[in-house]
Design a protein that fits this description.
This protein is mainly beta and 293 residues long. 9% of the residues lie in helices and 51% in strands. It has helices at 17-23, 164-169, 281-292, and strands spanning 5-13, 31-32, 40-50, 53-62, 69-75, 81-88, 95-102, 105-111, 118-123, 130-136, 142-150, 153-160, 170-176, 184-185, 192-193, 199-200, 205-207, 210-217, 225-234, 239-243, 259-266, 269-278. It is globular.
Length: 293
């Protein structure tokens, strides 16, 4: 019966990700979101700016229920939360709600491997109103699928959900002419096998002509650290990449220095999350009461 609880906290840096990486994350000024109630957390934050308003989408999790949903947080110019509300819930666990614009619409592609698939949602009337548009078929049920539009087509980076080894240490790629598919898996899958730099962990971007994919370093623990993966070749026949050094959490993270697994960007800001591991007896008692409730 697990006693440890991973507790995540999200922060906002008022700078684009290329500047954050060049100036150093450890000294960055971070606007931290308030801590959640005990045994709750927000994780996997992704930004979307609309009509000058910054919105943050994140996984909301309660260890008493063990079921992730997506919350929408609206922030003011000082990065204070002015409104928070549930945004998307399904019978299965949801997390990693990457939000992006494509083909005249706004899309969300949340992590949903416990449903047995991957589902693309389209924005309807407002940032809390999403409709499931299409199910994406791949060569494996994916975790943390991350899209990128590159050289005239869509690319998707993901790790297979079938077993712990592949979730933590394999990287797959697929491509499509349209975001709704159909998607073609790369013939070289897995294009990378490395527990230190394969599982996606944030927004893929172009920096200096190279693709930078944030990846999770899971060698010591899930989401233990984050490394930029610099991709030098991405095409139908090949893939080549080099992992950068692990990024240090910001100095202001305080006790939240046990992990770091999201580096997302957009709208002129960079979002991160960092982890504190709760090993208290209260966490063990929570599991006892939950199982025998």
């Amino acid at each position: 019966m697990p006693r440890r609880k991973d507790i995540w906290r999200c922060g906002i840096i008022d700078a684009p990700v290329d500047r954050v990486l060049s100036s150093g994350l450890s000294t960055a000024h971070v606007h931290w979101l308030p801590e959640e109630p005990r045994f709750h957390f927000l994780a996997d934050p992704f930004p979307w700016r609309h009509a000058g308003q910054l919105h943050l989408f994140a996984e909301a999790y309660d260890y008493r229920r063990r079921h992730g949903t997506i919350d929408l947080l609206t922030l003011d110019a000082a990065f204070q939360v002015v409104e928070r509300r549930p945004c998307l819930a399904e019978p299965w666990h949801l997390s990693y709600p990457t939000v992006f614009e494509a083909e005249g619409a706004v899309w969300m592609l949340p992590e949903a491997h416990r449903s047995g698939g991957l589902h693309l949602y389209r924005l309807r009337s407002g940032p809390q109103d999403w409709v499931r548009e299409v199910d994406i078929r791949l060569d494996a049920v994916p975790v943390d699928a991350t899209p990128l539009y590159y050289e005239g087509r869509w690319w998707l980076f993901y790790s297979p959900a079938d077993r712990r080894e592949t979730r933590m240490g394999h990287l797959h790629v697929a491509w499509a002419d349209r975001i709704t598919g159909p998607w073609l898996p790369h013939p070289g899958n897995p294009v990378r096998i490395d527990r230190a730099s394969s599982r996606p962990g944030g927004t893929a971007v172009l920096i200096g002509g190279r693709i930078m994919l944030p990846t999770q370093d899971c060698t010591a623990t899930y989401g233990g650290a984050l490394r930029p993966l610099w991709i030098d070749r991405l095409d139908e026949a090949g893939f080549a990449a080099t992992a950068g050094q692990a990024l240090d959490p910001p100095a202001s993270a305080g006790r939240y220095r046990d992990g770091f697994h999201t580096l997302s960007s957009g709208g002129g800001v960079t979002l991160i999350d960092v982890k504190h591991i709760d090993r208290s007896l209260a966490g063990l008692w929570l599991e006892v009461t939950r199982r025998f409730r």
